Task: inverse folding
C-alpha cells in the first residue's frame, strides 16, 4: 500500500516562474484536506546525477503524502478533475515516490501504451497530422481520455532581404550582431559529449523582445539602425521530446488499462481512419500476459511430470487422474480468496498456486497410498476408505492448519513488501481450505466410485 505520490505537471504553455508557483499553490490548497505533507520543485530543474528529474520552466514536480493509503485514489481523482477544469492544456502524470522497495523492484514500463509511427516523412506537416490523429483517438475513446501532446514553443528570427538592402546592412554584420546580443556575457562553454553548456556572467533577466527593441546596428554609412526593423519574428511549436525504439521514431500515447482490448481496438480504428500513422502497442499488459502464460505452461508441465510419477508408483493410469482432479477444484478457493482480498492473478499469486498445489496434492497421494496398502492387507473397499480416512485425518488437518496459521500474519502485515506477499498468502490459504475438504471427502468419493465401476466390469467379464 502506498501513501506517497509524485505528480508531474507540464503546463504545455509558456508561464513565468511566478505564475507556475501560483498554479501549484492553488492546487495544493485544493488537495490540502487529503495531504499531510507536500513539497514542489517548480520551474527549471537540473540534477547532475538524475536526468529523469530534469525539467523546464513550464513544469513542476509535486510530492504529496496522503493521510492514508486509501486517500491516494481520491487525490488522483481530485487532481484529474482540477486540471481538466482549470488547465485543460496541462499534461499531468503520476509516479511513485522513491523508496527501497521501488528501487529494488523498479519498473518504468507503462501499463498500456500506443506507439504512433508516421507512415511517411511529413516534414513540417508532422505536427499538424499528429494533432489531428490525437484528436481522433480522443474522440474514439470518449474525450479527455488521452493526455494532451506536450509542445515546446520556439522563436524564429528571419532577416528581411529587402530591408537589409534598403538600410544598407549586410547579412554577415546582422548575424554577428545577433550573436553578440545573446552571448554578450558568455565567458566560455563546457562541452560534455553532445551537450554544450554556456557559462555566462549574471545579469538582469530580459525578454527577447526587449533585447531586440533596444539594440541598434551600424550600416555601411555609419547610421544606427534599429535591429527590430531588420527582423521578422514568428513563434512555432515542436514536440518537447522525441522517443525512438526498435521500431524507429514514434509518439507514445498512454492509455487506460481498465479495458485494454476495447481501447486498443478504438485506437486502431482512429489511426486507420486518419491514414497518416500506423500504431503498435506495448506495456505491462502484454508482459504480464506473457508471464502468466509461461507460468501456466510451467504448471501444466509440472502436473504432467507428477502424473507420470504417480502412474509408475500406483501402477495405474487412472488413479493419478483422481489425484490431479484436485488441482482445478482448488482453484475455486484460490480465485475466491484473491477476489475477496482485492488481488488478482500475478507472479506472486501464481507462485502461491504452485506451492499450494504441491501441499494439497501430497495429502491426496498419501491418502490414496494408505487405501491401497489397506486393500492389499485384505480390507474391503469401503472399509479401507474409512480406516484410511481415520489414519490420515489428523496429518491432513495439521498440515492445513500449520500452513494457514503460518501464512495468515502476512495478510495483516504492513510496510514495504506487504502488497507483494499478500497475493501469495491469499492463494495459499484459499487453496488449502478448499484442498483440505477435497482431500478428506471428494478424493475418497471419486476413488470409491471408480473402483466400484471397475469391480462391476470385472464381475461382468467373469460372467
Result:
Amino acid at each position: 500500500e502506498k501513501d506517497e505520490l509524485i505528480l508531474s505537471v507540464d503546463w504545455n504553455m509558456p508561464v513565468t516562474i511566478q505564475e507556475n508557483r501560483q498554479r501549484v499553490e492553488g492546487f495544493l490548497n485544493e488537495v490540502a484536506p487529503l495531504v499531510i505533507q507536500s513539497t514542489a520543485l517548480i520551474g527549471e530543474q537540473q540534477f547532475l546525477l538524475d536526468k529523469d528529474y530534469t525539467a523546464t520552466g513550464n513544469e513542476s514536480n509535486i510530492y504529496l503524502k496522503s493521510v492514508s493509503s486509501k486517500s491516494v485514489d481520491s487525490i488522483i481523482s481530485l487532481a484529474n478533475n482540477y486540471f481538466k477544469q482549470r488547465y485543460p492544456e496541462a499534461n499531468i502524470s503520476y509516479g511513485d515516490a522513491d523508496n527501497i522497495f521501488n528501487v529494488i523492484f523498479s519498473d518504468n514500463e507503462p501499463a498500456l501504451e500506443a506507439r504512433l509511427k508516421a507512415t511517411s516523412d511529413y516534414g513540417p506537416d508532422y505536427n499538424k497530422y499528429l494533432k489531428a490523429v490525437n484528436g481522433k483517438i480522443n474522440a474514439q475513446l470518449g474525450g479527455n481520455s488521452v493526455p494532451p501532446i506536450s509542445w515546446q514553443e520556439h522563436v524564429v528570427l528571419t532577416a528581411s532581404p529587402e530591408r537589409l538592402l534598403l538600410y544598407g546592412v549586410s547579412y554577415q554584420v546582422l548575424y554577428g550582431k545577433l550573436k553578440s546580443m545573446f552571448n554578450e556575457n558568455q565567458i566560455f562553454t563546457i562541452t560534455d559529449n553532445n551537450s554544450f553548456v554556456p557559462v555566462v556572467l549574471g545579469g538582469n533577466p530580459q525578454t527577447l523582445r526587449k533585447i531586440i527593441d533596444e539594440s541598434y546596428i551600424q550600416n555601411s554609412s555609419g547610421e544606427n539602425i534599429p535591429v527590430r526593423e531588420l527582423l521578422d519574428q514568428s513563434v512555432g511549436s515542436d514536440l518537447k521530446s522525441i522517443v525512438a525504439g526498435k521500431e524507429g521514431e514514434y509518439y507514445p500515447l498512454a492509455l487506460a488499462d481498465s479495458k485494454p482490448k476495447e481501447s486498443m481496438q478504438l485506437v486502431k480504428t482512429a489511426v486507420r481512419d486518419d491514414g497518416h500513422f500506423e500504431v503498435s502497442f506495448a506495456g505491462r499488459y502484454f508482459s504480464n500476459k506473457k508471464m502468466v502464460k509461461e507460468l501456466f505452461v510451467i504448471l501444466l508441465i509440472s502436473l504432467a511430470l507428477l502424473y507420470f510419477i504417480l502412474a509408475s508408483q500406483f501402477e495405474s493410469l487412472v488413479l493419478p487422474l483422481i489425484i490431479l482432479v484436485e488441482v482445478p477444484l482448488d482453484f475455486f478457493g484460490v480465485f475466491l480468496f484473491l477476489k475477496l482480498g482485492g488481488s488478482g492473478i500475478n507472479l506472486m499469486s501464481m507462485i502461491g498456486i504452485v506451492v499450494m498445489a504441491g501441499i494439497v496434492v501430497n495429502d491426496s497421494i498419501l491418502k490414496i497410498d494408505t487405501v491401497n496398502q489397506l486393500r492389499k492387507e485384505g480390507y474391503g473397499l469401503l472399509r479401507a476408505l474409512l480406516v484410511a480416512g481415520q489414519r490420515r485425518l489428523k496429518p491432513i488437518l495439521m498440515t492445513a492448519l500449520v500452513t494457514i496459521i503460518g501464512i495468515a500474519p502476512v495478510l495483516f502485515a504492513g510496510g514495504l513488501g506487504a502488497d507483494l506477499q499478500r497475493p501469495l498468502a491469499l492463494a495459499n490459504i484459499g487453496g488449502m481450505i478448499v484442498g483440505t475438504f477435497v482431500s478428506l471427502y471428494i478424493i475418497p468419493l471419486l476413488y470409491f466410485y471408480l473402483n466400484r465401476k471397475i469391480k462391476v466390469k470385472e464381475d461382468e467379464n467373469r460372467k
The mean pLDDT is 83.
